[in-house]
UniProtKB/TrEMBL annotation:
Counteracts the endogenous Pycsar antiviral defense system. Phosphodiesterase that enables metal-dependent hydrolysis of host cyclic nucleotide Pycsar defense signals such as cCMP and cUMP. This is Metallohydrolase. It holds the Pfam family Lactamase_B_2. It comes from the Bacteria. One of its GO terms (molecular function) is hydrolase activity. The keyword Hydrolase applies. Keywords: Hydrolase. InterPro entries: Metallo-B-lactamas, RibonucZ/Hydroxyglut_hydro, WalJ/YycJ-like.
Amino acid sequence: MGIYFTVLSSGSTGNATVIQHGGTSLMIDAGLSAKRLEALFLEREISGTELDGILVTHEHSDHIKGLGAMSRKYNLPIYANTSTWAALEKSVGAIPEENRRVFETGEKHDFGSLRVESFGISHDAAEPVGYTFDDGSEKLSVATDLGYMSDKVRDAISDSDVLVLEANHDVELLRMGRYPWNTKRRILSDIGHLSNEAAGAALSELMNGRIKRTYLAHLSRDHNMMDLAKMTVRDAMESRGCFYRDHEFKLCDTYYDRPTPWDRVGEP
């Protein structure tokens, strides 16, 4: 059967990822307008009518912009923890009670034969989370908007076949950039975003022979570039003694303006 996914959009302008397994289709976040999400769906030959629900990581606008509109148009349940529901409900408009689903941090929910588990992350939001998707033989993990790689996050994603992992910024580009210092300080903090270097350090601890691919996600358009992110991540891994060959492990791109190709988690 297999787990398939596409990162529809990733970055500060909006985030959404679709995961499919058998007859189940789920979307993580809806951080673009409903119109834009539907255009991205068409690029990957899917429709909002196929979705079984939307999983929310946290309440920031680049993760929930189209959440209410998508839920109402397609009668979709929204899954979020209690704190995130309290923080986002004023931003998403009226949601029918039957579509307000509570998915507390650390819980596991089964969608058909796909088990989804949430795990807590460190970010300046009410109670932000990442998600893992496991069908018993394949596992995909999505971890973005995390200020640092905690032991709990590492434990949650360590046995993944494929990761979607934040590599938000190059530290020096951010420090020299146009943002005010208080914004830079927040991004660099433990409740901000994971840098390229930090992503590489985290991956060096996660390389256990099972991880085949990592999609570098949520890149800053002002303070990062994909080629720079890949180079820095590789250098950080190799400086820690983690060497790999392209046929064994790959770093993959994500985009703010177009979706990634469909990927099967279990494929080499």
